[in-house]
Amino acid sequence: MAGRKLSQQQKRRIQQSRAVVDVNDEHNHPGLVISHRGGEVEVEALDSTEPNLQCNLRANLGSIVCGDRVIYQQTEQEAIIIALQPRDNLLQRVDGFGQVKAVAANVSQLIICLSIEPQPNLFLLDQYLLSAEQQDVEALIVLNKIDLLDDQDSDPFDLLRIYQPLGYQILYTSIKQHYHIDQLQQHCRGHINVISGVSGVGKSSLTQAILPAEDIRIGEISEASKEGRHTTRTSRLYHLPLGGDLIDTPGVRGFNPLVDPGLSIAAGFREISAAAQACKFSNCKHVNEPKCAVISAVEAGEIDPGRYQNYLKLLAEYR
Ligand SMILES: Nc1nc2c(ncn2[C@@H]2O[C@H](COP(=O)(O)OP(=O)(O)OP(=O)(O)O)[C@@H](O)[C@H]2O)c(=O)[nH]1
Ligand SMILES: [Mg+2]
Ligand SMILES: [Zn+2]
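A: This is the predicted complex of the input protein with zinc ion.
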């Protein structure tokens, strides 16, 4: 799927958007992007306590997303973003039409929100984890709505068994029972978090629970399809009372991370890249090569077969 790689045009646009501006010029102000909807960007001033501004965009800035740091100028008529500051990272995905969509910039933790209903899709989860590994962002897996389980001590999707040994943190939560909300707040503390997942899993409900002073729209679940109704339409950044930020995002249908062609898919699977050290061939893809340590580890039950299948699926898709 060549469409998932960064095209030359996209790279050029990103370069252009990093144009240097004089931060000592008194007309230039630093700002933080709080939300972006239909060409209007809400910006928080970083050098004053002025209320947030609605800014227009100078042409050719490329996509501007929540978490971006920008330089803006203000006249009596309007406020306008004139430059984008260099990003620490950028989470991107490819939508159903093959278009690259920026999700959030400068984040330090990706909260992958799953729920009992709608049920988790572990292929989607592995794509999120791959994206987090490639962008050097920490990942936290949250399984919400555990009040819907008959036996709350059971782990019907085997998340702990599969993901905990890989070093990922998993948090079970319930809004209905106010369960582990304080823990979630502690996990978010000091991080620039982005919460993502399919529609209806409870991303906005969790955001609201740790930000009681805000008024966040919560959706319904369709009785017929058990799916969410895409209630959140635009991402928004909130400051957390204990320090750090949280970006609530609209539900995705699939995530389809934008894979960096310079990095291998295996590098996004911690257990596969660890086992690969012992493969006979240094360029082993772990598909059917002789003396492949990854295949041996799968056969020995040391690597989860579902994770390995998801790796193969991604490898085939991105080839
Ligand atoms: N039973 C139960 N329902 C929950 C829980 N958390 C959220 N819900 C319900 O799930 C539905 C969807 O919640 P939202 O917070 O809007 O979900 P979302 O992930 O933000 O959805 P989008 O904005 O569409 O992506 C609402 O009806 C919530 O009341 C929970 O812990 N238990
Ligand atoms: Mg929402
Ligand atoms: Zn191998």
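The chain has three domains: 2-84, 90-248, 265-318. The domain at 90-248 is CATH 3.40.50.300 (Rossmann fold).
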